[in-house]
Amino acid sequence: MRGYVKRVSQKADKLSVEQLRSLLDDMMEENGNLYSILESVSAGLLIVDNNFILQQTNTLVESRLPFNIRTDDIKASSVPIWEILDDPDIAQFFKNCKEKEITNCSEEFTTTTSGGTIRFLTITMTPLMHDGKLSGRIFLVMDVTENKNQEVMLHRMENMANLTNLAAGMAHEIKNPLGAISIHIQLIQKALKKARENQDKLPEKKFVEDHIDVVNEEIEHLNKLVMDFLLAVRPVKATLELKNPEDIILNTVEFITPEFNRSGVNIEFNNSGLNKKILLDEKLLRDVIMNLAQNSLAAIKSYRKDDGLFKIRCYIKENKYIIETSDNGCGMDSETLSKIFEPYYTTKANGTGLGMTMVYKIIKEFSGEIVVDSEKDAGTKFTLIFPLPQKDKKLLTSETE
Hints:
Radius of gyration: 32 Å
Helix content: 40-55%
Structural class: alpha+beta
Largest sheet: 5 strands, antiparallel
Order of helices and strands: HHEEHHEEEHHHEHEEHEEHHEE
Number of strands: 12
Shape: elongated
Number of helices: 11
């Protein structure tokens, strides 16, 4: 059609009114067909010129992106697209694409609906070419919320598969407190029976109180075991959003630094400086860093009196976002290393053995992986590996470890 119109336009002065009217009808029909195609696309569609001024949209895009005016408003076609968007992260994305003259990329975002529901969006940009020259950009806006929810449910099902091991560990753990309670109650019963046989003369007050104190301690221990068990088997309630983990880690480091310094342990935090966002829950990531930090602090204090060092660094490698923690503490032997994520396994006198189990569950909830390297007397390193939302690998060629 395009070639036909071009040829006809060259002979327009020779065409009759009827022929021109017929040509106009054909063009209107073709334009209607193109509009129908745009409306039938299952993604939100934005077409902008080289100045990122809006040229064309479909209806679906307004339900995907938070605009501050309607896209058919006259202002929408007179200012750069980032000025008509309410979401600052998405607006900045468009602005960066213009300033850096990017033509191909894809990035994920989270938005919140008026009802408070979090939605996950993927915005993909491709070049718009005309006569072999770049004339603008085409943006496809996909709602991938359902896919993300399915991934979360899959991870939760995997976590629930560990319930049998947790239950077996729980059964083993409650045997000792129950045994102690039984023994001390039997001793009290024997003392009372003997007292009745001896003209109701009770034993000394401290004798009975000692046994009752032990019973109360074991009951408290049992209650803690049950609460920890419920915490371990309950699905992780993560509110996943695209966040910069380095902001969260920096706040956590600032919080724990005084405690570490009082123990003669220094903290080093090396961030990537890339301002990348990954899918996570802010509170849960903080819990993970706190748990790893406290374990490192205990390992350092048990091994050295000074020169303690706990490091955290963030970097991107092979299109993965890496958070790495390391210490120069006592390290772990091969047996401890092999059982580090097992429920109820602990080397601490007062430990529950569920801290690292929860860390593992949280990392899996973030669709991540966790790797631990440690040797006796050589410190410990945890590596947390997360997928990057950025789909365009070309943008990461200069972002390395």
